[in-house]
């Protein structure tokens, strides 16, 4: 865990915040004594971070919120055809990248 003085954090807040977003913890020091700890919000903790991100994407018009309900005949519907194999190629490429 890295330590930073309050004055340093005030002067470089954006850089400190970027480090925290990247997963690093930061101990805030005042006159050599710890006074606070900046930690990233876990992505899976009760889904809050994910829900917040989805709301932002929805406001930007990049996604549409679903109703959460499937049509009654969903599982009986025919699968879409992919004659050129694009879906399989995308899946293989994603797995090769480690996603």
From TrEMBL:
Q: This protein's superkingdom? A: Bacteria
Q: Which SUPFAM superfamilies is this protein grouped with?
A: YefM-like (SSF143120)
Query: What InterPro entries does the record point to?
Result: phD-YefM_TA_antitoxins, YefM-like_sf
Q: Which Gene3D superfamilies match?
A: YefM-like domain (3.40.1620.10)
What family does this chain come from, according to its entry? Belongs to the phD/YefM antitoxin family.
Q: Which PANTHER family match?
A: ANTITOXIN VAPB22, ANTITOXIN VAPB49-RELATED-RELATED
Which NCBIfam families does this chain map to?
phd_fam
> What's this protein's name?
Antitoxin
What is the organism of origin for this protein?
A: Nitrospira tepida
